[in-house]
Design a protein that fits this description.
Elements lengths: L3 H14 L22 E5 L8 E4 L1 H7 L16 H14 L2 E9 L5 E10 L9 E8 L8 E11 L12 E6 L2 E5 L3
Antiparallel strand pairs: 1-2, 1-5, 3-4, 3-6, 4-5, 7-8
Length: 184
């Protein structure tokens, strides 16, 4: 992650998830990430609907020059829609965080590099699947960007699971048979 906002949001998300693969949607509180709320969005996992925006921060809407709530996320990536759908599938299905390099274009055709972070939520039965993310520009004053395309992406693996040390017990059950409880 190159952008400080991405690192800050990921650190907060990672802290909220604890030992789980992903945090519950209700675990993320707006207070600790108040300064980032304008860059954050929440998507519904709905491939048929283009993964509509449930929530879109004001700076995300300003970057793209329109109110995004209810509109599809994947249609923003016209030339690489299949790739972004594959990334969303991995984020929600495998509970992996993804860091995505995005190239957009200004009104005069100049490229504008962006960084996008996609983070899963824990899924619950009978609840809609959703994910959160953050979209930030590397330079200030970028507005009304169009023609989004992917320049790079990578998944961030789960940290190694932490296990508590186990007490090893040696049991003599029968003559010549030893059982070591605690080992697999």
């Amino acid at each position: 992650m190159k952008h400080p906002a991405s690192r800050e949001f990921f650190a907060y998300w990672d802290d909220c998830r604890g030992l789980a693969a992903a945090p519950d949607r209700s675990a993320l509180e707006p207070g600790p990430i108040r300064a980032l709320l304008g860059d954050i969005f929440v998507l519904s996992y709905d491939p048929e609907g283009g993964h509509p925006f449930r929530v879109a921060g004001t700076r995300v809407c300003a970057l793209l020059g329109l109110d995004l709530k209810g509109s599809g996320f994947t249609p923003l990536f016209e030339t690489c829609r299949d790739e972004i759908e594959d990334i969303l599938d991995a984020v929600t299905g495998e509970k992996l965080a993804a860091v995505v390099g995005v190239t957009a274009h200004t009104a005069d055709g100049q490229p504008a590099p962006l960084e996008m972070l996609l983070l899963p939520f824990n899924t619950r039965p009978h609840m809609p699947v959703s994910l959160t993310g953050l979209l930030v520009a590397f330079s200030e004053g970028r507005h009304n960007l169009t023609r989004l395309s992917l320049s790079s992406w990578r998944y961030m693996a789960h940290p190694p699971q932490r296990f508590a040390p186990r007490l090893l017990q040696k049991l003599a059950l029968a003559r010549g048979l030893m059982v070591y409880e605690g080992l697999i």
